Amino acid sequence: MASRKITKAGGSKGRGVATTSKFTINPRVARRSFMKIVAATAALAGMSLGPKVVRELNAQEKKEAYPGSKMVRTVCTHCAVGCGIKAQVQNGVWVRQEVASDHPVSRGGHCCKGAGAIDMVTSEKRLTSPMKRVNGKWRKISWKQALDEVCGKLLDIRKKDGPDAVHWNGSAKVSNEMAYLQRKLAAFWGTNNIDHQARI
Question: What average pLDDT does the structure give for the chain?
């Protein structure tokens, strides 16, 4: 059994190296090696768990579980990578998903965000109407009221402090087309103060 006693080698100036009676450890190399081991273990775990967590149902299972449904090929919108998703749609509703094993980018893989992409549609926590905090409590309001209040406040800011008083922030959650419209809105607003959330 190795001694627990650790001494510093290498002099009083410069970085010391921790030593014991049986071995020598360089802290920087040890940390780097540890990180490599953790990354490799996580990758292997992801490869082994992936097919079990999000597996493709056979044709009979799909027919029994979701009669009248169809598979729609799409992409994950959580980031700009664009991993492939097979969305199973029943009566116009996204009911389950599979990885697209033949997709050229993701090759049948998903990160944790992509694996839960369907929650954007099915989650019980998903908001379906605008909310406004009144006297410390959230209450539903109409889309008209929400748009009127937000637009009114924005126009007040623009009138008082000019178009550069507002910063428009893009999101990895939007499509290319929505990103184009966001940039167009900033331009019509009269400012170049627009950036992507990934840089903030």
Answer: 76
Cα(119)–Cα(70) distance, integer angstroms: 19
- The pTM assigned to this predicted structure is 0.50
Encode burial over 90-123: b for 16+ CB neighbours within 10 A, e otherwise.
eeeebebbbbbeebeebebbbeeebbbbbeeeee
Strand 131-134 vs strand 93-99: parallel, antiparallel, or unpaired?
unpaired
Radius of gyration of the chain (CA): 26
| Distance from C-alpha of 58 to C-alpha of 31, rounded to nearest angstrom | 45
Q: Take residue 95 and report the two structure tokens written for it.
A: 């009911």
Please list, in sequence order, all residues whose beta carbon lies within 8 angstroms of the beta carbon of residue 170, skipping any fewer than 6 positions away: 179, 182, 183, 194, 195, 196, 197
Residue 116 · residue 57 · CB < 8 Å: no
pLDDT tens column, 113-159: 788 778 877 788 888 899 999 999 999 999 999 999 999 999 999 99
* pLDDT beyond 60 at 77: yes
Q: What is the pLDDT of residue 186?
A: 94
Burial track 59-74 (b if 16+ CB lie within 10 A, e otherwise): eeebeeebeebebeeb
Nearest residue to 74 via CA among 88, 53, 63: 88
